[in-house]
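subagent[fold] <- orchestrator: predict structure for attached chain, return tokens only, no commentary.
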Amino acid sequence: MPNFSTLLTKDNITAVAIGHFDGIHKGHKELLKHLGEYGGLVVIDKNFANITPRLKRAEYSNYPCFLYEFEDIKSLSGYDFIKLLKKDFKHLNKIVVGFDFRFGKDRAWNRYDLKDMFDGEVVIVDEYCFDGIGVHSSIIRELIKKGSIQRANMFLGREYSIEGEVISGQGIGSKKLVATLNLRDLGYVLPSDGVYATKTKIGNKIFGSVTFIGDRLSTDGKFSLETHIIDEMIEHAPKKVSVCFISKLRNNIKFESLEELKKAIQEDINNARIISLACKLSL
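subagent[fold] -> orchestrator:
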């Protein structure tokens, strides 16, 4: 783990792991084990990361992240890429990569070339498998899109979490149904339409919650991402919250009346309350 008593910068880091690192999942954490206390992540960012966008990777890895925009380095040869790393990290003596690592223009150089070209230690980490399946961001992304949240969480090693800005809703929730925080997501891949047992983090507090994603079929038909805080009254809406998904409760359904919808929402709340109480959240 990094040395939190020391500010880790390019000037004192001695080991880096290189990759995209979207998700910081169980496979990535096998690489992190080799970094030591003066380690950091070299993140090759193509601006499509939507499990852990941008510097959210640092939050889940507990290591500083240094973003290298893919467009800025894609024309570099393998030799020039290594030269750039050694220039940026003056005390670099270890590079950690995955089994399928390729680098340089047109991905022409591989992990074995890295061993020949870098004069320090090179650690190549084997593919990490869970339940007989290789753990990769692409698989986790598809599981999330399908609403297979529990499975995705197993691959991540934590609950899938998104951040959202609180915005104005349609205005009937608190009056005729239940009060919700309506959200605009900040660039994350969203689970499939439906209702989910979740936990919502507001500031430093975590609350049990039930979250809806999808078109409001029973009211105005517009898309909505909204979360209801269970057994709590939120007097002042925050500017931003984090929603952590535990499991899917049901698909999105059209109800014939607001009374039917309200009854279903209450059942969702009861189910989510039980699930969220049993969940030992690992943010």
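orchestrator: received. Logging for downstream: The CA atoms of residues 83 and 259 lie 66 Å apart. The chain has a mean pLDDT of 91.
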